[in-house]
Each structure stands twice: as structure tokens, then as C-alpha cells.
Hints:
By secondary structure, this protein is mainly alpha-helical. It folds into two domains: 4-133, no CATH class; 138-240, no CATH class. It has 13 helices and four strands. The strands form two sheets. Strands 1-2 form a two-stranded antiparallel ribbon. A hairpin with a 4-residue loop joins strand 1 and strand 2. The longest helix has 17 residues, at 4-20.
Amino acid sequence: MTDSKLLITELVLTAYLYNQSDKLSVDDLPQKIRKHYWNEKENTVKRPIYVTEGDIRSIYGLEDVKTSTKTLPFLEFEEFGSQIKLTVFDLGAKWFVKQAEAIESINSNPALASFFESYDSLPVSYEKAKASNMPKESGREWINSLIKSIETEKGSEEMLRLAHIVSPEDVRQTMKDLVLTKEQEGEIEKIVKAIQYRDYLKRIGLVEIGKLLFVGPPGTGKTSVARALSGKLGIPIVEVKLSQ
Length: 244
């Protein structure tokens, strides 16, 4: 079980770095933190992030946050509002990297990795952390924001009755659940790579790539494969009915 002081410090350091750097986006926040601070109306995590005792309880399920906070010399617990403030960033960073689970935490937190990959030759990587972190589009909260935005458009009511948008975190099928031929697995792997590197492919002029058309009678697994791909890639799936 991760030490409560490590989790508290991770959140406070993450909030500090996110607030300080415009180069960091919501995709640099770990999914738990991003989900908690998500602003559905603004469709993002607004700056600045404030950390309170209630936030830590909600994100990590920790109790006795106040006591743990007061044992850390670089944190200040404000009684009014139960806000937890970072008093000395460098001291907090030095304490954090000395903890047993720090490297694992950093390599799953892009915001922290962006700072610590050039800190004291630590075996951490921003690229690795980013790759392990699901994008905002994978979360149910992003889908809810998208739907609310669509609802403001003319004719959206009818469109939303025909389209069912499913977030990757709600997809139950996985690629391991499917029985595929080697040829089918090869084609799926091609689309996975194409989507993973779509920004690069777009820059070199390859845009009509990374698409598959599933053809077959009902019950042959077309929707199951599409849903499993959605979960694997962290991309929402839109199921469209031909009629109401």
C-alpha cells in the first residue's frame, strides 16, 4: 500500500507544476487527478489547482490527512478551508525522490516526469509517463462535457437520440476476449500503429490511413472488435443507429 505522505506530496507537487507551466496540458495529469478536478462546463482542468483535505480523501481515500500533512516540513495545513500548501518546492522534491515508490509514481505521472527527468539523473522519462497515461478522451467526464456542448447546437436532440457515445473506461470487451485469425490480428495491429502515430503521419501527408471497414452479418463481432479497439487506444466509440 502506497504511503499516505507520498500520495499527499505527489498531489501537491503535481498541482504546483501544472499551475506553474503552461506547457503542461490536462493529458499530463494522472487520470485520478484529472477526473477529480475536471470542469465539465469548461471541458478542462482549470488553473490554478488547489489541494484540500477533501480533495485528498476523494482521490486517494485517505483518512487523517491533517496529521500526515503536519509531519512534512515543506507542507502547510491551513485550518480555514483545510487547504494544503507547498511552502518550499525544492525541499518537497528532494523528500519525494528519496521515497521507495517515487520512481514508479513519477513514471506514471507526466507532470512530475516533465520536471524529474532532468533531476539528479533519475531513471524516469516524460515520454514513458505520457505513454502510460490515458488521454482525456478516455474518461467519462470528457464525454459528458462533449455531450453538453453538442446539446447547445440546433438539431442536436435528434442526433443524440441516434448516436450513443461510449467512453473507453466504460468498454468491457478487451482484445484478449476476442478470437481472431492471424490475418485479422495483423490488420488490427496496423490500425493501432497508425492511430498511435497519426500526428506524424499527418505531417508527412498520410491522412487516409488507420481505418478499417468491418463487413459481415449481425453477430459476427464487428461491434465487439470496435469496442475492444476503443478500450485499447483510449478513444471514444460512437454507435450510430440508422433509425430511432
